[in-house]
Amino acid sequence: MTVRTKKELLYCSQLCVGTVRDFHIKSTMSSEAEVRESVKEYYGKKLKTVNDLETQACVAPGRKVTRPVKEAIGLVHEVVTSKYYGCGLVIPEKLEGMKILDLGSGSGRDCFALSKLVGPAGHVTGIDMTDEQLDIAREYIGYHTKKFGYTKPNIDFVKGYIEKLTEAGIQSNNYDIIVSNCVVNLSPDKKAVLQESYNVLKEGGELFFSDVYADRTLDESIRKHKVLWGECIAGALWWKELHTLASEIGFSKPYMVSVTPIPVDRDDFKAVLGDAKFASVTYRLFKLPAKQSEGTQVIYNGDIPGYEEEFNFDYKTKLKTNDINAVDGSITTALKASRFCEEFDFQPPVKKSCGDSGSCEDSKAEDPFVYLEEKNKKGEVVAPACCPSSKACC
Question: In this structure, what DSSP letter does residue 359 have?
Fold first, then answer.
């Protein structure tokens, strides 16, 4: 068993969610309202600090990040990070001056890091339903405003449900980016979350979020398990459902950015879950105009801070600076309509190479579990545990 120092545990908590053995409540739920109240109690009253987490239950490893991102996370107050839980890194590229909304912002770790990265001309709003977490986040607004050298705060926190953003006073067609870190799985109505997100994004806006997904549709007996809901497992979508929901709402296809396996080690949980597998996946979805572009060639100019050598649109679309890269119509539309437009030179494709239809669209949805299997076959095992001692970690 790995023994970690208190500092390492604090570090691990910034990217990971663990299992709390002493959460003594009845084990099943029967309604959406009960799910919400259960999650509120879990994150508001049962989880106090990183010491309430089991260190081997981390669900995402640290991953290499840019220096500005590393510095921004490092500036967040220790109290905020000690009460923060998440399953991935939800800090995308090109953030200066952006208006960002964080769904399920908790104690505000991601929000404060983003507050530093968007600069004084940008703004970050966090929304959460848990009073205890919101109290911590609001308490440290002044601290971070001073720490970042701002004359006034560029951040605020709103109480509300992520399924009801408009009801909470979140303005429609207002945000450049929405982020969320291991929270959508906690919602009993994920379609409502995605629909509300779509509504409050500007055209060309992006939903960049990490969440837990299953390799199948989970049985109702699992869905009703309170502790597994709190552990972000019972509410996990079958990954294909995300593609279906995104299409129904009007989002672009979900682009898979990164995948990390989530092992379930406890025997009592295994007995409930059976053979189901889980992974933490970071996706990006765009709210695109109705008129789609054709596939084209793009040249990345290398001007995004921290990404001077390469811009990775998703796990397989790696755009090196000053190289000519062929991309499909969906990616072309996303780049042209979004904040990334000025970072690329768009050129017509040299020739058609996809048959008589001339369509180079890749309509196949990437299976994150197949991706992990293929990595394993190549000997490129994706570690499920946090690695605070590794130089690759943020």
Answer: -
